[in-house]
Amino acid sequence: MKEQQLTRVVLMDPSEDPDDILRANRSREKTFVFDMVFDSTATQEEVYVSTTKSLIEGVISGYNATIFAYGPTGTGKTYTMLGTDSEPGIYSRALEDLFKGLEATAEEMDYTVSMSYLEDQLNLLFRSKDLVQVSNQPVISYPQIYNEVIRDLLNPSSGFLDLREDSRGSIQIVGITEVSTTNAQEITQLLVRGNKRRTQEPTAANRASSRSHAVLQVTVTQRSLRKDTGIEETRIGKLFMVDLAGSERAAQTQNRGKRMKEGAHINRSLLALGNCINALSERGGSRAQFVNFRDSKLTRLLKDSLGGNSRTVMIAHISPASSSFEESQMTLIYAYRAKNIKTQVPEQTSPKEFGIKDLMRMVKCNLRNVSYHMDQYTGIIAELRGEIERLKARVENQEKEKSAAGPDLRVLQAERHQGSETPSSQAMNTLRAQLIGAFREQMEMCHSLMELENTNIELHVDTCRHLLTIADWEREKAWGARTEDMPAKEEKGQNTEEENREVDVIDSPEPHEVTVAREEINLLLAEQRRTAALKTELEQHLANAKEKASQMEEFFPRQITSEDQQEVLRLLCRAHELQLGNTELQANTLYRENLLCQKDFLIQQLQQNLLLCEEIIQQQHMLIKAQNIPVPETLARLHHLHLSELEEGVLHLLLLLHSVMSSMLRPHNTSSLDVSQHLDPNKDEIRKGLPGNTKDIPWGMKCDIPSITLESDSDSCRSSKMIPCRKKGSLETHLSPAFSGLPKSPVQQISNAKPWTPSSSNTDTACESHLHRASLFHQAKAASSTSIATKVRVPVSHHSEGTPLEVLPKSNGPASATQHSNADHIKGWVLQKQVKGPADGASSRQEPQRVTHLGSHTRSK
Ligand SMILES: Nc1ncnc2c1ncn2[C@@H]1O[C@H](COP(=O)(O)OP(=O)(O)OP(=O)(O)O)[C@@H](O)[C@H]1O
């Protein structure tokens, strides 16, 4: 790696041989430009001053700010954020500056500073020992299920905390400890203590590796009274400082067993963060996407920091060791995407004209005016006093009337109650307690089943995403092979840069994300099988519990003689039945949601396969024409039929109809879906198809291949763009058995699924895509509110195989050109989903899920 002018990182691929003449023209370097780059000699002070110091002023004025430390394990994230006693990190320095700034304004403003420190950790959803034995009910034992949980690092005894959205849409952590303080030292001490409670485990890359994301939130509230108007102003500035868990993949840390699973889950929340970053970085571009913050607790927590009202700095950490090349590349790509996130800037102004101060103005200030004037308050208070007097008088009158009427009713009631503590009422109480216990157990099981179904959906969506990543790579390879097979172009010497790159794709080793996807699929499938087994077991328990409860319902009323009490028991049972029925309906909806998601994925793959077949037919036709082979009449007729179906777009309309139906089937569908818009055959998108869709159809006809872009579709697993380059049979080859047949129940599918093995690469059948491939990155760089700093440190726990850090010759050329060429090599899939279960709130309303597939690179034909 080299560094120049402290803004560029040039990554050199250590695996490529410089003496390889076949690749002599190919650049081994990848350049990434950031706002700031630090090498291993940078001090904590320098890092703080260049990245964070300028944000503190904003927090004091009521703006939000966020600082992320991102990177693989052992690269120094915790060191940057927390530091050591002699070299304090960003936390202490930022807090010191914050208090200094606040003291300077103390004369005009009253201020309070409160802070909370939490970790977003992976933990066990159930443990056998968590289940308390109730009376003589059997104890249900569950194996461990991992889930994302939030823990208060300042008060770990408070257990796992829940996230809730308040009426203004801000995320609140229920029960978090907020410590008010007046000096930075106190906070630093609390932080050091809190950090010791953080989940740490040794990995091969770091002896004290943090296995959770730590979020320090400092809230500054300032109040001032404007003398001229008498209006009280409140400014609230929030500062988030986030030390993320390592972004490494399992192989890097040599994690096994629990650590490996943990890594996969940590990566899942980082993946969700990445998806949000991708979607946000596309905002304002031609392919604006929905940003799904609900994908993980981490992203929900950081919604404001990422999505809008915050100035955000990401400090990406990489190791200069050549052995960490892949991790470094992934980190830089991630950070580069984050850099594209833009604040909504006024349209008429050029982004270049903005300085830091202007950007700060674009972010909304959290200023609340107390809009009532003091005089109005006096009036309101007087009114309230009057109301109290009136009410007091009414109460007195009522008391007088009662005493005139006779003895106190309450006294009579108490007397009757005491007398009623007969043996029969005691028996009734016992029976009621037993019934309620049984009902409660059933409800808990129902909720656990819903949790499991939710986990199932998450796992399923994750698996789809990885399958898509692999499919994309396979298609790219097929594309490369096809280009190589095109003798005409070679003859003409038209080997453009684009084609060279395609040929490179076949030669190049499998990209990192594809390898990761293969690893993850096996993990996810194993977990799906485990979840399915658990579900079956739990369903069995629930059936037993229901049986037992219905026996109780029959038997208990016979033990009670009083009709009133019998009626109470009957009502109790009825209320419970309704409650249970409701929960079961919710669980059913979830299950159907999951099924739909699977169907959609299957349809998506079939669509791709359909287009591939289309391509094959066309090529075969060209071959028949070229060779002058006579066509039997039956075949010609069949072909005609095929063409007329395509022309009328029946298949396409059916697919659209399906997607519309699916989205309608979803309860509380939030997407504004216009059916008529979808089905209008005159609608441009449907009729026109995408660029290059018009194909020269055999037998001399021109036909539009219907577009399969279903942008407004709210289906769970929908690709916003599909590339019809799937090879014949690849559906079976690449999909897990769970997706390779017609939809079965998830439990069936999962229990049938065998461990997934990497598919052999089929490059024999290449085909041509007729859908556009949008570049993942936009060349145009608008004003970005997300500053990115990259920190390279000399590894402490790695041994460095020669440092690839070199100095670039000074170049004044535009950075964006280099970036764009790099971006061309980058591909990615983004999958977004929204899964909501009972744990997320009182309602188990399902949000629509989406899958968005980002194309890998532009391809000119
Ligand atoms: N710039 C630096 N100078 C000196 N020591 C450093 C520097 N950066 C990191 N270290 C040391 O390297 C080790 C690993 O760093 P640290 O724990 O901060 O990594 P991390 O990225 O937070 O890892 P993980 O994700 O596993 O928690 C620590 O002992 C830390 O003190």
Question: Would you mind describing this structure in some detail?
Answer:
The protein is an alpha+beta fold. Helices cover 48% and strands 14% of the residues. The protein has two domains: 2-370 and 781-825, Kinesin; 441-752, no CATH class. It contains 26 helices and 21 strands. The strands form five sheets. Strands 4, 5, 6, 7, 8, 9, 10, 13, 14, 15, 16 and 19 form a twelve-stranded mixed β-sheet that branches. Strands 1-2-3 form a three-stranded antiparallel β-sheet. It is globular. Residues 122-147, 250-260, 344-374, 487-494, 667-786 and 793-861 have low confidence and may be disordered. The chain binds adenosine-5'-triphosphate (ATP). Adenosine-5'-triphosphate (ATP) binds at residues 71, 73-79, 206, 208-210, 245-246, 317, 793, 796.
Quickly list its features:
single chain; 861 residues; alpha+beta; Kinesin; 2 domains; twelve-stranded mixed β-sheet; three-stranded antiparallel β-sheet; 26 helices; 21 strands; 14% strand; disordered C terminus; binds adenosine-5'-triphosphate; cytoplasm; Kinesin_motor_CS; nucleotide-binding
